[in-house]
């Protein structure tokens, strides 16, 4: 039996504020699913201390993924130690997760392009520069036809609530237009600790092809958004449709406070090819609380 290629998105774990039971539950989830690649979409630590990065690195190693793609979030730059913030904002991050702040991963199934949207001179906000937009577009243009193409930013390009509008990525309009034209399928993000999947086509102009915002909640931190449990996303290539028709499913897996397992709570199947269809025709959604029992 062959299994569908699988990507695990972990966002905003904020090590230093982690819930030990959720950490263990996520390690178990990863072991059970053995993802091809784990994507950390920023805010890996709470205060960018060496101890927090050491704990995060050890956690990443325990997941047993073949590859890890990580980008920093605003919390991964020292906030109160001004010298470190100005002179070596990514020093501790690099020691734990490597020198490359914008890693690229590719396989037969996935092309994952990380973008560092943090800036030492900004507090929480993120931005993407013209040079970064072009570099990502150039790499997208060399994607293999069968690959699902993901760009990872920390701050979201799209939000669903008015109170989150201030958290949107600066430069997002140019980025979405350029990356859509260059063939991107999904933009993965975090930062607002609110998981959702939404179409970008229709929300941005121009956005010439089907493209999706995939946001993850906080994976294991106590910094929960009101009413939201800890959660991660699992992305699978939809094996039933074969690799010739590019599609993938986005599954949200939740871990309620005090629970010792992540359980599948929602599944969205995204058709990715570029027909100018209404997004509602390209996405099938199901909330599946009944999976709670089946997946425990
Ligand atoms: Fe965060
Ligand atoms: Fe953040």
What does this structure look like?
By secondary structure, this protein is α/β, with parallel strands linked by helices. It has one domain (6-294): Purple Acid Phosphatase, chain A, domain 2. The protein has helices at residues 20-33, 50-62, 82-87, 91-97, 130-141, 172-182, 279-282, 291-294; strands at 6-10, 37-41, 67-71, 104-106, 110-114, 148-152, 186-189, 196-199, 212-215, 230-237, 247-255, 263-271, 283-287. The strands form 2 sheets. The protein has a 7-stranded mixed beta sheet. A 6-stranded mixed beta sheet has the order 4-5-6-7-9-8, with helices on one face. A hairpin with a 3-residue loop joins strand 4 (104-106) and strand 5 (110-114). Helix 2 (50-62) packs parallel to helix 4. The longest helix has 14 residues, at 20-33. The radius of gyration is 18 Å and the shape is globular. 48% of the residues are buried. The model is unreliable at 288-296 (pLDDT under 50). Bound molecules: fe (ii) ion (2 copies). One fe (ii) ion binds at residues 12, 14, 43, 73, 75, 191, 193.
Question: Runs with pLDDT <50, length 5+?
Answer: 288-296
The SSE string, one letter per element, is: EHEHEHHEEHEHEEEEEEHEH
Supply the number of helical segments.
8
CATH architecture: 4-Layer Sandwich
Q: Bin the helical content.
A: 10-25%
Q: What fraction of residues sit in β-strands?
A: 15-25%
**By CATH's scheme, which homologous superfamily applies?**
Metallo-dependent phosphatases
Rg from C-alpha positions?
A: 18 Å
Query: Hetero groups bound?
Result: fe (ii) ion
Number of domains: 1
Distance between the termini: 22 Å
What's the β-strand tally?
Answer: 13
CATH class (first level) name: Alpha Beta
**What's the overall geometry?**
globular
Strand order of the largest sheet: 3-2-1-10-11-12-13
Structural class: alpha/beta
Main beta sheet strand tally, sense and closure: 7 strands, mixed
CATH fold node name? Purple Acid Phosphatase, chain A, domain 2
